[in-house]
Specification:
6-stranded mixed beta sheet; single chain; Nucleotidyltransferase, domain 5; 5-stranded antiparallel beta sheet; 3 domains; alpha+beta
């Protein structure tokens, strides 16, 4: 990062953030339930256990019981670790081979035992600025942590941080506001509009235009649905902020509208638009309607490149790593290799120059870094 900055290749003006998942070294079937875990804990703690309960254990639990190269104390430690993961993750089943991994939904809709990889990429150089591995199955609240790591690594705050719609929430927006960073996060509608995926029904919410000055939605019949009220809903996770729900409607306009039967369900007397989010989210939505921010956000497509290379050329999915820390360490090494190759291709120096850079970096940071460049 420092070399790229010193050479004038980038000022880290725009950092794009995204997430992907990496399949863990654990099959979907090699999992254990809470009930079976408790049976084995009772057994190894010396409590009375019905032999029939041990006989009925499924294969993953039975393999722990029958594992001969593992002592009883080690088995008990593993089981305590599994119990901790039940409490920490809220999962119904825990992977036996990699207890820190979690069931996550892949892009094809299939579920797999995996880790969530968050990464930040510099737009100008396409260098990977930071990696963060998490157990959380979605990207919703991951922006602050990966952004902090990126800022620490590049030693500066970028002017822009861009992310896709799933990161649009109060936690992300509050972090960006506190750090005085220009966030670029579109709404779901803006994202759908960009790829031509708006709902085909002309009376769907997608086709109601929001007027920021009036704080109202204009319907396809040119009537305005005005702000009616604001409510809060507690988040399922007590550590997360409450959800803010804003309601918009216009009973009289709907009552006299010729298109009411096309727009409303038979049980409805009028159309209601429900919007989620705070004033900060409204401000972000408004900003992302402006062309200058749309143009800047368009740059974030570069975030996909590095991990495409990871998966195709580095064979990321075939790397055998267990536990979250080891997974992060390995992917950071992949990122280091990728960045060195990227930097070498960009610098018009000799191979020896880059090897000298690696050696000086190794000495400065008291790390063993050996690079062979062909």
């Amino acid at each position: 990062m420092k070399k790229a900055f010193d050479e004038g290749f980038t000022e880290f003006n725009h950092v794009a953030i995204d997430g992907t998942i990496k399949k863990a070294y654990n099959s979907n079937n090699n999992t254990i339930s809470k009930k079976e875990t408790q049976i084995l804990v009772d057994y190894y703690e010396g409590h009375s256990v019905n032999p029939e309960s041990l006989e009925k254990l499924h294969k993953p639990a039975k393999r722990i019981l029958e594992k001969k190269d593992m002592g009883d104390e080690d088995k008990l430690e593993l089981l305590y670790g599994i119990e901790t993961q039940f409490t920490f993750t809220g999962q119904d089943r825990i992977p036996v081979n990699d207890i820190e991994a979690r069931f996550m939904k892949g892009k094809k809709g299939n579920y797999m035992v995996a880790y969530n990889i968050q990464y930040a990429v510099d737009y100008d150089t396409k260098l990977i600025c930071a990696i963060n591995i998490t157990q959380n199955p979605t990207d919703h609240y991951e922006l602050p942590e990966i952004a902090k790591k990126a800022i620490q690594n590049i030693n500066t705050k970028p002017k822009y941080i861009s992310a896709d719609t799933i990161y649009l929430n109060q936690i992300s927006l509050s972090y960006l506001a506190d750090e005085k960073i220009e966030g670029l996060i579109p709404t779901r509608k803006q994202s759908k509009e960009k790829i031509g995926k708006l709902n085909k029904n002309p009376y769907h919410k997608d086709h109601f235009e929001y007027d920021y000055e009036q704080d109202a939605f204009k319907c396809p019949e040119n009537q305005y649905l005005h702000f009616y009220g604001k409510y809060t809903e507690p988040h399922k996770d007590p550590e997360k902020p409450e959800k803010i729900k804003r309601i918009y409607n216009n009973y009289n306009a709907c009552k006299n509208c010729n298109a009411r039967t096309k727009c409303c369900a038979s049980s409805q007397t009028h159309k209601t638009i429900t919007e989620y989010g705070s004033e900060m989210q409204k401000a972000m939505n408004h900003k992302m309607e402006k062309q200058e921010y749309k143009d800047e956000y368009a740059k974030r497509s570069s975030v996909e490149g590095p991990f495409g290379i990871f998966k195709e050329q580095f064979q990321l999915e075939k790397e055998i790593v267990i536990r979250m820390i080891k997974t992060e360490e390995r992917i950071n090494l992949d990122a280091l290799a990728y960045n060195l190759i990227r930097l070498y291709n960009k610098i018009e120096n000799t191979t020896e120059d880059l090897e000298d850079f690696c050696e000086s970096t190794s000495i400065k940071n008291q790390l063993q870094l050996t690079a062979t460049i062909f």
